[in-house]
Design brief:
Low-confidence stretches: 155-159
Order of helices and strands: HHEHHEEHH
Shape: elongated
Mean pLDDT: 88
Largest sheet: 3 strands, antiparallel
Number of domains: 1
Oligomer: single chain
Strand content: 5-15%
CATH topology: Arc Repressor Mutant, subunit A
CATH superfamily: Winged helix-like DNA-binding domain superfamily/Winged helix DNA-binding domain
CATH architecture: Orthogonal Bundle
Number of strands: 3
Radius of gyration: 19 Å
């Protein structure tokens, strides 16, 4: 983007589209080694479980993903078969199933995250220190502004 002042939100949105495409390319590259093994929505299950650090009730996980519970069951079946998550009965309520991340599932999340960080670092190294500082400030502002919409939007795409 040029040094000119960006006026309204519409102009700013148009100006950041190329950057959003570049960011999407970083995300796609980080997930590409999983192709055929774990789908993007299944990866999102692993991320939610890794972020929660505890076993989640299947109904809560389905809600977080904005999917029907039966859809979650099918997705979870595949992850259980691959040894990435495990299901257990909730001792507090036998009608509930808990879903928990297996060490192999955590390894998948960490590997993708490391790959993404490596690619971002490589790109950021091409920027001056001033550009990096401005970018970090802008991303932090964007993250705060997007917080209300981000989780719902990401889960609908499985990210």
């Amino acid at each position: 983007m040029s040094d000119r002042e960006v006026g309204g939100a519409a102009e700013a949105a148009a100006a950041v589209i190329p950057g959003s495409r570049a960011m999407l390319a970083v995300i796609a590259r980080s997930l590409s080694p999983l192709h055929g093994q774990v789908t993007v929505p299944q990866f999102r299950i692993l991320v939610i479980l890794a972020d929660s650090n505890v076993a989640l009730r299947s109904g809560d996980l389905a809600k977080a993903l904005d999917v029907h519970p039966s859809t979650l069951v099918r997705m979870a079946d595949r992850l259980v078969a691959r040894g990435l998550i495990r299901r257990s009965e909730n001792s507090a309520s036998r009608r509930e199933t808990l879903i928990e991340l297996e060490p192999a599932g955590l390894d998948v999340v960490r590997t993708v995250t490391r790959r993404r960080q490596r690619d971002l670092r490589r790109i950021l190294e091409r920027m001056t220190s001033g550009e990096r500082a401005a970018f970090v400030d802008a991303m932090q502002s964007f993250t705060r502004a997007a917080a209300a919409d981000a989780d719902a939007d990401l889960t609908s795409f499985g990210l």
